Amino acid sequence: MTGRPAASRSWGEISFLLALTVLGCGLAVFTPDLIKGYKDDQPYYIKSAFFPWLALALVVGFGAWSVGQTLRGVKRDLSDELDVAQTSVPRAMGGAFVMALYVGLCATFGFPAATLIGVFLFARVSGLAIGTCAILACVMTLLLYAVFVLAFKVWFSPGLLIKALT
Amino acid sequence: MTELLAGISAVADLSVVLAVVAGSMMGIIVGVLPGIGPGVAIAVLLPLTYGMNPLAGISALLGIYCGAFYGGAVTSILIRTPGEASSIMTMFDGYPMARRGEAERALSIAFMSSFVGGMFSAICVALMAPWLAQFTSRFGATEFAATAALALLCVAKAYKGQFAVSMMMLGLGLFLGTIGIDQTSSEHRYTFGLTPLLTGVPLVPVIIGLFGVAQAMVLLSTPPSTEKPEVIKAGINFKAFLEPFRYPATLAKSVLLGTGIGILPAVGAALSTSLAYFEARRTSRKPEAFGKGSAEGIVAAEAANNSNSGGAMGTVLTLGIPGDAVTAIIMGVFIVHGIYPGPQLFIEKPELAYGIFGSLVSINLVIMGLLIVSTRYLVRLVHVQARILGVIIFALCFVGAYSVATSLYGVLIALVFGVLGWVCAWLRIPVIPMALGLVMGDFFEASLRQTLNISNGSWLIFLQRPIAACIVCLGLVIILWPLLKKLLPRSKQPANQG
C-alpha cells in the first residue's frame, strides 16, 4: 500500500476531489432536512445527525486539504490498488454499459436469455472474436443457470415480456 | 481446552470439509490466474455461501483467502508476474531460479514455506486468541470506539503520501454507513423517500462493485499480450520440500514477523514479506545470492506472506476489526450470517470461534495436498486471457449482486460502485478505506454514541479510562510520528545499508 511514484495531478483528479468536497459540504448543511423526523432539541451526541456530520467533516476537511495540496502542486504517492494504466477507457465504459443493459434484459426477457445476450456483449466489447463470444456465452449461461438457479435455488423473475406473452 | 476441541470437532462436519476443499481449490486457482486477487474472488463468490452454515461459509472463503497466497507464488516464480504486492519478494528469487531450469524446486520451496507459515500462524493465534479475547472482554464502549478509531487511522496511514485522500474516502465510507434507519432514534437518514434505502446501502453489492465490477472493467479492457506464451512445465519436487528447514532461523523469524504484522490492522502482508526478506538477506551467510535465485530468499518471503492470514483473522475474531480489504469482506460475511466478531464471540459461540482456527489449520493441510496433485496442471492457467476473465467476473458479479436480496437493485448498486471504483483507480485514489469505513461504520457509531451518552457528551472520558487513554496516546503518536521523527536525534545510519 505504499503506492507508485508521485506524479502530477490531472484536472480530472481535482474535479473529482472538489466535487466530493462540495457534495459533502452540501450534505452537511442540509442534513437536518435530509433526515425524516429529525429532532433538533437534543444533546448533540443523541442527535441522529451527529455521526453523519462527523463523517462529512472528514470528507470536507480532508477533501479540501487534498484539493489545496493539488493546487499547490504537492506531489503524492499514487494508489496501486488497481492498475488501469494499459486499459482502454471506451472498452471499460462499454463493459459498464453492457452491465446496465444486462439489468434491463433480465427484467424483460428473464435470466437465461439475458445472460446469453449479456455475456456475448461483454465478450464482444472486450474484442474477442464472434465465435469465441458465442461459445463463451453458451457455456457461461449453462454454468450460471446450473449453479445458481438449479443448485442454489436463486429465484429469477421470468421477465416482463415472457409474463406478458404467457 | 474443551472449547478448542469443540471447534476442532465442528470442522469435521461434512459440509465444512466440502467447503474447505472447494474454497481451497478455488483459492489456488484464483492465485494462479493473473490479475485476480483473493479480494475479488471472495467478493464475487460471497453469495454462494449464503445457503451454507456459518462455519462452512466462512471456511470456504478462508480457503480462497489462504489458497490465493499459495497460488500467488506460481505466477511470481514462473512468469515474473506477482498477482499481489505481497508476492513481489518471492519473484526476486523464484523467477531467477525458474530461469535456471529449477522451477519445480522454487515452487516446492515456496509451497512448503507457505505451509509452515500458515500452520504456525493458525496454531499460534488459536492459542493466543483466548487470552486476547479475555483481555478485550474488559473493553467497554469507550475502548471499542477508541480501537475502531485507531484501526481506521492505521488504514489511512498505511497509504503513505496519500493520508488526506485516504481520510476523505474513509469519511465517505463512514457516511455511506449512516444511510437508512438510525438504530437509536428510528429516524430515516438520507433515504430520499426511497424504500430500498431504509435498510441502508447494502454492504455486499458495494463490495462486489468496488472489488469485482471495477476489476472486471479493468480486465475486460486490457489489450491481449503480444508476446507468445512460454510453455511451462512444472510440478513438485519432493526433495526440495525439505529445503526450507535448512534455514531454521530465517523460517522462524519470517513466520514470527508475518504473524505479528498480520495482527496489526492495515499494515498488510506486503510489509511483512519485505521486512522478512531484507532481514534474511542481512543475516544470511550468502547475502550476495539474494535476487539471483536464493532458496533462503523464497523461504523468507513465502513464510512471512502466508503467516499473515492467521494473524489477520486473530484481529478480526478478538476485536471485530478488519485489517485489510479481504478481512473486511470476510467480516462482512460474518455480519451477513448474523455473527458479530469480537470478544463476545468466544463466550457466546466458542465452537465457531475455535472452529475457524481449526478450519485454518485444515485449509493449509488441504491446500498442500491439492498442490501436490494439481500443480503440473494448474501452471497452464497462468496464460488465461485477461479479457476472458473479465467477461466471467462481470457475469459472476451480476448473479452475485442479484442473489443478495434476489433483486436487480443489488446489481445496480454494484454497478454504481463498480464505476466509482474504476474512476478512483483511474484517478489513483484508494477505495479500500471507503470499504473499511462502510464495514465499520455501524460499530464505530454505536460505540461512540454510547460512550458520549455515558459521559454526557464529554470527550474527556477517552482520557479517564486507562486502556482507552493508551489507545488514544498510540493514535496521537501515529498522527504526530512524522513530526516526532524530525525532532528525535538521528541515529547513525550503517554505511552498508540497503
Task: Please characterize this protein's 3D structure.
The complex is a heterodimer of chains A (166) and B (498). Chain A is mainly alpha-helical. Chain A has helices spanning 11-34, 50-71, 89-109, 111-125, 130-151, 160-165, and strands at residues 4-7, 35-36, 76-78. Chain A has a two-stranded antiparallel ribbon. In chain A, helix 4 (111-125) runs antiparallel to helix 5. In chain A, 38% of the residues are buried. Chain B contains 20 helices and two strands. Chain B has helices at 2-11, 14-32, 38-45, 54-79, 88-99, 103-136, 141-158, 163-176, 203-220, 248-263, 269-283, 295-319, 325-336, 343-348, 350-378, 386-403, 408-427, 432-454, 461-464, 466-487, and strands spanning 180-181, 188-189. Chain B has a two-stranded antiparallel sheet. Mean pLDDT of chain B is 84; it is low at 492-498. The interface between A and B is large, with 86 and 84 residues.
Q: Given the structure, what is the number of helices of chain B?
A: 20
In what range is the share of β-strand residues of chain B? under 5%
Strand pairing plus helix content of chain B: what structural class?
A: mainly alpha
Number of helices of chain A: 6
Instruction: Give a short account of the largest sheet of chain A.
Output: 2 strands, antiparallel
Number of strands of chain B: 2
**Overall pLDDT level of chain B:** 84
**Helicity level of chain A:** 55-70%
Unreliable runs of chain A, pLDDT <50, ≥5 residues?
1-8
Helix content of chain B: over 70%
> What is the CA-atom radius of gyration of chain A, in angstroms?
24 Å
